[in-house]
Amino acid sequence: MRRSACRLLLLLGALALGVATTAPAAGAQINWTTCAGTIEFACAHVPVPLDRSGTGPSGTIELSVRRRRAPVGDESDAIVALAGGPGQAVLPLAHGLLELLGPVLADHDLLIFDQRGTGQSGALKCAALDHYKGLQSPPPSRVSRCAAQIGPSVADYSTLASVADLETLREQAGYQKLILYATSYGTLVALDYARLYPSHVEALVLDSTLPPSGEDPFGLSTYGAMRRILGQLCANHACRGITDNPVANLQRLDARVRVHPLRAVVYNGHGIGHRVRIREGDLFDVLLDGDFDLPLRAPFPAAVRSALAGDNQPMAALNAAANASGAGSDADIDVALFYATSCQDTPGPWTATTTSPAARLIQATAAAKALPTNSFAPFDVSTAVDEGPAMCTGWPTVPPAAAPTAPLPNVPTLIFSGAEDTRTPTANARAVASQIPDARLIVVPNTGHSVLGTSPTVCPGNALDAFLSVKPVKPCPAEPPPEVNRPTAIDPAHLRDLRPVADLPPLVGRTVTAAVQTFGYVVEGFASAFASLLSGESSNNPTNAGGLRGGWADLTPGGTLHLHGFSFVGGVNVSGSVALASDTVVGTLRVGGRAAAHGTLVLEADGGVHGFLDGVYVQVPAGRLDVVLRMRQALLQRAAELRLEATNRLF
Length: 651
What we know:
Elements: E1 33-34, E2 42-49, E3 60-68, E4 77-82, H1 94-101, E5 109-113, H2 140-150, H3 159-173, E6 177-183, H4 185-196, E7 201-207, H5 220-233, H6 246-259, E8 262-267, E9 273-278, H7 280-289, H8 300-308, H9 313-330, H10 335-345, H11 357-369, H12 381-387, E10 413-418, H13 426-433, E11 440-444, H14 451-454, H15 459-468, H16 506-525, H17 527-535, E12 544-546, E13 552-555, E14 560-566, E15 573-579, E16 587-592, E17 599-603, E18 609-613, E19 616-620, H18 627-647
Parallel strand pairs: 4-5, 4-6, 6-7, 7-10, 10-11
Antiparallel strand pairs: 1-2, 2-3, 3-5, 8-9, 12-13, 13-14, 14-15, 15-16, 16-17, 17-18, 18-19
Helix pairs in contact: 3-4, 6-8, 7-9, 8-9, 11-12, 16-18, 17-18
C-alpha cells in the first residue's frame, strides 16, 4: 500500500476550443454558471448527503462539477471521466480531456467532478498525515490517528458512496445514459456503477483495470506480474553476464535485506552525500514505480547482482530515482482520502471482532502464511503484509455496505492494459473482460500503468478514437522493447573491473574506459531532459544529478553537459563539459581520483577519443569506443519519441 495509488496521467497539449453553454438538459436540476477563467466549461456545486446510510452524521458534501456541452444538439448522454487513486481530483485535468476525447465531444457532453473528499469537493484532511506527500508510507499509528481526527464520518468515503454521487449527478444533470471513462481506481467506481445502474450505462472505457470485486488485501496479482515482468526483462539472454534467474537473485537479496538493510551513500544534485538504508519495502517500491517509468527497471537486475556482491551504490541510486519517480506520480493524491477509501473498501484479513492493531497484524500474517508457497515471490510474507493490510490495522471497524453482486451489463466496453503494469496487471483486465461478453481488451506492449498516459505509440489513442466513433478497433502489435528499457550491464565498482583499451598501459587503458563509461552514464541519466530540449517540449526532468559514487553533473538550457568530479567507477573522478546540443559532439574531460591515471581526454565528433593520461598519449579511433555517437543517436531517438507523444492525445 506504500505506493499503490493509481494515477491518471495526462499530457496537456493544444486544445480545440469550444464554448460552454448553460442551457440545461431535459429534466436537469443543476444551476450551471460560467466558470471563472474559461469559456469552455460551465460550473456548478451539487450537494449530496455526507452519510447515505441514514445512520451516520448529518450534513452534506458539495461536489464541484464541470460540464462542457456538445457544440450542437441537446444531448441526452454524457461522457464522465473518473480519476485514479483513490484520492485524485479530476478537475485539474479538464482541459486535457478535451484534447484526449477530441471529435467524440462533437455530439457528447463532457461531465466531470471531483469525487467526494478530493480536490474541490471537500478535500479530506487530517493533521496526522499533513506532512506526507503522495503515498509516502506513514506508520500505522499515524493512519489510526488520522481516522480518529476525521471522526464519525470516516465511513462516508467509500467507493459505493462515490457511485451514489455519480447517479445523483446523472439524474440532476438530466442525462439518460453515461459513457464512463475511467483509469485505475476509477475503473472500480465505473464497474460498481455499471452493476448497480446498468440501464444508465451506454459504454465503458477502462484503463488499467482493478478487478470488479476490488483488490484482494495482499494484491496477489501484483506479485505474479512482477515475476513475469522480471522474467521477460531477461528473456532471450538479455541479462547475459548479469544473471540467468532475476527472480531467484531478488529472492536472495530480499532474504538478506530482511536481516541486514543495505547501507549506502546517495549523492544529491550538488554532490552532497546522504547515508541511506535500503529495506525490503524499498526493493518492492523500485519495481512498482517502474509502472510509471519503465526505464527504472532496465538497471534493476544488475543492481540486484551488485548488491549481492557487496556493492550497494547502484541499488541506492536506483531507489533514489524510484522515490523521485513515485513522488511525482502520486503527488496529487489526497492521502487521507486514500486511506479512508482503501481501508473501508478492502476488508482486512482479520475477524470483524478484532480491533487491536497488534492482533490484526498477527491474523494478517497468519492469513498470508496460509497461502501457497511462493505466492509473494520474489518477496515474502513480511513484505506482503507490510505492503498490503498493515497500514489499515489501526483503522476503525465500520461494516462496509454490501458489494454489488449483479452481473456486469453487456454494454460496449473497451479495456486497456499495459503489458508491463504491476499495479493493475493484465490478469485483472482479462478477469473483467471475461464478464462482459463483447468487451474488447487491448494489451499494449512496452507500457506500464495508465496506458493512455504512458504508451510510447499512437495505437491506444487510435483504438479509443475508433471505439468512441463506433468503428473497428485494432489491436496493438507486439514490438521489441526500446533500447532504454533493455537491461543494462553491471556498474563497475572498481577500476580493475574494466577491460583496458588495447595498446595502452593497463592503468591508462582502464582509465580511458572508465572516463568514457562515466560520460555515457551521465548522458543516459539526462536523456529525457535533453531530449525534451531537442524536441522543444517542456520538461519537469531534473537538470542536475549526483554521481553514483560522488560528485555531480548539470545540464544547461543550451544543452551543455557539465561534470563536477562525477564518479561512476570507484576511485575515478571526471570533470569537464560536453556540448551535446552541438552538431559536432565535442567535449573535454579531466580525469582524476585515487585509482585513476590523471590527465585530459577529448571526445571527438566522430566518436573517437584522444588526450594524455599520466603523460601517455591516448588516441582511440572512432568505432573502438563509440559511446559518443551511440549516446547522441539515443538522444535523437528519444527526442523523436517525445515529438510523437506530443501529437498523441494522452490520458
